[in-house]
Amino acid sequence: MSKTADVVDARKPWNIEAAAAILRAGGLVAFPTETVYGLGADALNPPAVARIFEVKKRPRFDPIIVHVADAEEAGRYGSLDSEAAKELIRRFWPGPLTLVVPRSELVPPIVTAGLDAVGIRMPAHPAALALIRALGRPIAAPSANPFGYVSPTEARHVSEQLGTRVDLILDGGRCRVGIESTVLSLADPVPRILRAGGVTAEEIAQVVGRVEYAPHAAGTPRAPGQLQRHYATNTPLEIITKPDDARATAGERVGLLALKAPGEQSGWAAVEILSETGDLREAAANLFGALRRLDRIGLDRILALALPEEGLGMAIMDRLRRCAARPPAGPPMGAA
Fold it and tell me: Are 148 and 275 members of one domain?
């Protein structure tokens, strides 16, 4: 039986050094960011990056984001010298914004799924930054969960699903943002959001002016999280516009996911409220944890009340729509 990876305190410098040594040797480390926990490998080591795909059961056509700890260093791995890139970096790095730009030859093709562009971001979690600096190289990292399943926002989520397949888990507490970074392509004539996330479209538009939104991949994805079904629970999820739109049939256990508490809470097997005050930032931080709790209690269905699609509501609804998409044939996405 495989040993479960140690879960260690990310605040301790010696644990950061131990994690960096594992990465240097070609291993995998799960680490916290402000968005979700990442499954990290040395981005410049192709065999190590290949292990990410194997552990997550991630298709090789899905590119991986490169994480850096210094904006100037980032320029070694992609073309970040445009005025738009410089201003976006000044405003939002470190933070939940990934910039897709033409890649340099230093980035192995396996990281970008053979594409000529690379996604780069500078995370805003002290443990993530310390780990990258200790390694002295960029870290390639998607979310630390089985491919397609709900992303992890606590170290225990990683341990429960990938604990026997990674070499170490750094515990940095609960992720502050709770949903993945916004992915913005600067490789297009007009800046294009490929994935909604922790930086809103409105915030980006204040910097670059016009911005397009193209979240769905036609063919090969250009960024993580562009597949029609992703961030998915094993329990079927449906989106409704008001609680009265659907109710449980006789003998059916149905859970409700809502931004604020509905007027009537009886009749549900479980209710998860994302923010009592309707705060979308709090809702985003609570989303994946709430989905995981509902997915663990043997429900027949999860009904999610639609949120307003403004600010972070766009990113939350993007995750819910992908979760609600019909699954492909085969085992559940979260299956080990």
Answer: no
**Is 220 within a domain?**
no
What is the mean pLDDT of each successive set of 10 residues along the chain, which is 336 residues long? 88 98 98 98 97 91 94 95 96 98 96 94 98 98 93 96 96 97 92 94 94 68 58 91 70 92 79 95 96 96 94 93 73 36
Q: How far is CA 39 from CA 96, 151, 157, 265, 271, in A?
A: 16, 11, 12, 38, 31
| Residue 147 · residue 57 · CB < 8 Å | yes
Bridge partners of 257, per DSSP, are 272, 304
Q: Where are the alpha helices (DSSP H) in 30-75?
A: 46-56, 71-74
Q: Are the beta carbons of 186 and 100 closer than 8 angstroms?
A: yes
Burial 262-298 (b: 16+ CB within 10 A, else e): eeeeeebbbbbbbbeeeebebbbbbbbbbbbebbeee
Query: How much is the pTM?
Result: 0.91
259 and 170 assigned to the same domain: no
- What is the tens place of the pLDDT at every residue in 245-254? 666 667 789 9
Contacts 24+ apart (CB under 8 A), 256-261: 256/302, 256/303, 256/304, 256/305, 257/290, 257/291, 257/294, 257/302, 257/303, 257/304, 257/305, 258/304, 258/305, 259/283, 259/305, 259/307
- The range of the structural domain enclosing residue 304 comes to 237-324
Instruction: Kindly state whether residue 336 falls inside one of the protein's structural domains.
Output: no
34: left (phi over 0), alpha (psi -120 to 50) or beta: alpha
Residues 115 and 189 in one domain: yes
Residue 246: the pLDDT is: 63
Q: How many domains does the chain have?
A: 2
Kindly state whether residues 197 and 243 are assigned to the same domain. Answer: no
Domain containing 134 — which CATH number? 3.90.870.10
Is 85:184 a contact under the CB 8 Å cutoff? no
Q: In what order do the strands lie in the sheet with 237-240?
A: 237-240, 301-305, 254-258, 270-273
- Do 23 and 143 sit in the same domain of this protein? yes
